[in-house]
Design a protein that fits this description.
The strands form two sheets. The chain has a seven-stranded mixed sheet with strand order 1-2-3-4-5-8-6. Strands 7-9 form a two-stranded parallel sheet. The chain is of the alpha+beta class. It has a single domain, classed as Aminopeptidase (3-Layer(aba) Sandwich). The protein is 19% helix and 29% strand. The radius of gyration is 16 Å and the shape is globular. It has three helices and nine strands, in the order E-H-E-E-E-H-E-H-E-E-E-E. The C terminus is likely disordered. Strand 2 and strand 3 form a beta hairpin.
Length: 169
């Protein structure tokens, strides 16, 4: 049996190792990592433990869209390879989405397999006019409304908050 807990600072080395195994050494070159600079969104990083051992992780990052519409970006999500398919990842996603909604986030974005994230209520983001700041596997950029009314506001390029260039007056 596994348990879900808030991520602790001492979890960082195990998370980095798991991410390297799950996504490869070039993971930092992926488009979504352009949005994952700095610290994850407050209160939205969780780990799974089984018999006290670290077995999985999920993080969310603050982002914004056109007109400064805020959201969170889910990921990365990873589970130890020998434990995949046992519900740990799905439990982490469900727990994280519930926590994001409880905190008051209205929109969650993800770049991932539609078959995996679709059952959580994610839908294709491209038809809404949303764009990531680089290439992503076709069909993998998705969005989920966490609070009614927010989906109608989601438009434009997704970026880190306050990432707009400053123009001198």
């Amino acid at each position: 049996m596994f348990s879900l807990q808030p991520e602790r600072a001492e979890d960082a080395p195990a998370i980095d190792t798991l991410m390297d195994h799950a996504f490869g050494a070039n993971r930092l070159e992926r488009t979504v990592y352009k949005l994952r600079l700095g610290a994850p969104a407050e209160g939205l990083s969780f780990v799974a433990r089984q018999d006290g051992a670290f077995v999985g992780s999920i993080r969310f990052w603050q982002v914004e869209m056109d007109l400064g519409v805020p959201g969170v970006l889910l990921g990365p999500l990873a589970v130890e390879p020998h434990l995949r398919g046992k519900g740990i990842g799905k439990a982490l996603v469900g727990h994280g989405l519930a926590a994001a909604a409880k905190i008051g986030h209205g929109i969650c974005l993800v770049s991932g397999d539609p078959d995996y994230y679709g059952p959580f209520g994610f839908v294709a983001a491209d038809p809404l006019g949303l764009k990531l700041p680089g290439p992503v596997t076709p069909g993998h950029f998705q969005i989920k409304e966490l609070s009614p009314g927010w989906l109608a506001l989601a438009r434009g390029e997704v970026r880190r908050p306050f990432a707009r260039s400053m123009v001198a007056a």
